[in-house]
Structure formats: C-alpha cells, structure tokens
Amino acid sequence: MMTMGLAACCVGATGPVSVAARRPAAAVAFRRRTGAVTATRRETTMTMPMPKTTTAQSTAAEVLRSLDGWAESHILPLLKPADASWQPHDLLPDSSSPGFRDAVDELRERAREIPDDYYVCLVGNMVTEEALPTYHAALNSFVGYDDPSSDAAWARWSRGWTAEENRHGDLLNRYLYLCGRVDVRRVEQTIHHLITAGMRLASDRCPYRGFIYTSFQERATAISHGNTARRAGELGDASLARICGAIAGDEKRHEAAYTRVVEKLFELTPDAAVRALEYMMRERILMPAYYMFDGRDPELFRHYAAVAQRLGVYTTADYADLIDFFVDRWAVADLGAGLTAEGRRAQDYVCRLPERVRKMEQLDARRRQRPEPSRVPFSWVFDRQVELVA
Known about the structure:
This protein has 15 helices and 4 strands. It has 390 residues and is mainly alpha-helical. The strands form 2 sheets. The protein has a two-stranded antiparallel sheet with strand order 1-2. Strands 3-4 form a two-stranded antiparallel ribbon.
C-alpha cells in the first residue's frame, strides 16, 4: 500500500512544513482548506516553470500507452495469481477449527505482552491500508484506464495490484479485532473519516509524477511493515511478525514494479522524468493517511508519526535513504545528453536533496531533546497515554 512518509513526509524539500500544514482537522475541514493550502504552497515553493498541465498530461499519457506491451512482459509478471497468494485466513486462527477459541486465547495472551506504542503504529498502518478505494481511484487517474473491463496491461495491473493490496487491510483488521488490545469502533471511525476525506496527490493526473509517488510510497510501506515485523519478533510474537512480514513482502514486489516503470520513463524521456521527480520532491510526497482523524484528535497523524519515529518504524532518516536509493536506481546523477536547462537544474536539486533532508533531521533531533517526554492519549488504545518524540 502507498503508505509513505510518516514523520519524514512532514519535511518538505525546502524545509519543514508549517505548523498549520501539520495539523489536519476533521475530514470536512480538510476538504474546505486543501485547495487553498495547495495553491499557496505552489506559489511560494515552485522555482521551476512547469509545462501547461493539459499538454504535459497528453504527452505523458501517450508515452504510457506506448508502453502497454512492455508492461505486459515487465510489470504484470510481478503480480501473483490468487491461487498462489497468501490469504488473511492463512495467517490467523482458523474459525472452522475445533481449536479456534484456544488459538484466539493464545493470540490474545501474546498480545497482552505488546506495549501500546506498538499498537499505535500497527493501527496507523492498518488504517492506511484500509483506505484502498481512494488509492485505486488515484492510480486509475494517472494510469488513464477507468473501464473496469479493459484488457489493457495497465488496467489489469491496476486491478491486480488492488486485489493484492486488499488482503493487507483485511489481515491487519482481523488481527486487531481478535487481539482485544484496541478500541475497534474508534479505529473503524478513523477509517471512515479517512476514506471520506480522500487524499492529496500532487501528480495532477500525470503518470510520470504518479509513478514516482507510488515508487516512494511502496518502498516506504515495505520499510514500515518490515520494521513492525522485526519489532513483533523482538517482543516474542512470531505469529504477528509473520503477519507484518507477509505484507512487507507484497510491498517489495509492488515497489519493484513502480520503480521499474519510472526507470523506463527515465530511459525514454530523461528530461521529463527528472523534472517530474523534482516537482514531486518540491511538492512533498505526503502520506495517504495524512488526513486521518478519529473524531477527537485534530493532530492524530502528527502524533502517530511521532510514535513511529520514536520506535524506528519509519523515520526521517528512512526518507533520506529513500531519496538516495531512487537517485541511484534511476541514475539521476548520470543524466547528461538530452537534458534541457530546466532538466539540469532539476537534476542538481534532486541529487543534493538527501544531504539537505539529513541536515534537517539532525536539527530536528537536537530540537527533540527535552528533559520530559511528551505524552498524549490515543483513542485507538482506549485513551491510554503514549509517549511521543518531543
């Protein structure tokens, strides 16, 4: 699932996001103010002229459609058929088994040993996964295939990716229901609010920007789920570690697909690709769950991100590593012939960005060093207090 960023997503390429931008309110308020916030930020942070949207969209869409045959042989094989895929039922107690109640009791016994801060991270990951209808619509918006029966490779990828992702929310949701450690109704309200609020995707229906976004999101998601798997193992719950690890494995395959698409775009149209990458870095790749709201805490995402940062589930350092990884994978520093002046400026900006993000993280780390830790109640864990990164 596209679950990028956490605390790192709140760091823009040109500096930390303003306090106002870090404070999502209720879903209705999000919708009311999103347009104004976006317009203001573009006016103040964009330094490179962008092509007119309609022209850019048309050209990018043509390039993507020309790659339908390539996607057939290079992208679709990264999906697994249903019969060969794990299903949530495989990783949870079998409800048809005579030993179901005993298995659930064992699951709940293990869950009692896991601290609340871990469950805050796990719920945040699950809530993000459950907003899949929004992500499916977003993917179709820049892939350009809304026909649910289309046999085009990109349309089949969109449906297959969605089918695989659908298992992630189902699995985590059922585990959290069985474990007895979270306020399920409050979590369900959070999901409801998030799907209603939608998401802000800076791709403007451009497939170049959209696939860059999904590349970052999938790699970040794999890191986050991988770290929750590692932490569950350290806490002695091997079954929970397998649950998170199975999801992380899917995310790695999806990352490979989207990364491969962008790599192809860099090969065919390097100037357009590097300018799209710069655009997305300047705009910030916001986590899809940025607008999460539980009906109580208007800063829920920021608090969740702070817990994830403290536990090492996903950090600003991870975000810098992501940029480094993609700059290297897409050979951005090696782009030469074919770049316009704008493309060269974009190349320079992107290649310098990881160092800038790391310097900001060092400043933030010093700022967070306070004598008393900050704690807030999370409705997800029955309003118990959980420590944040200050």
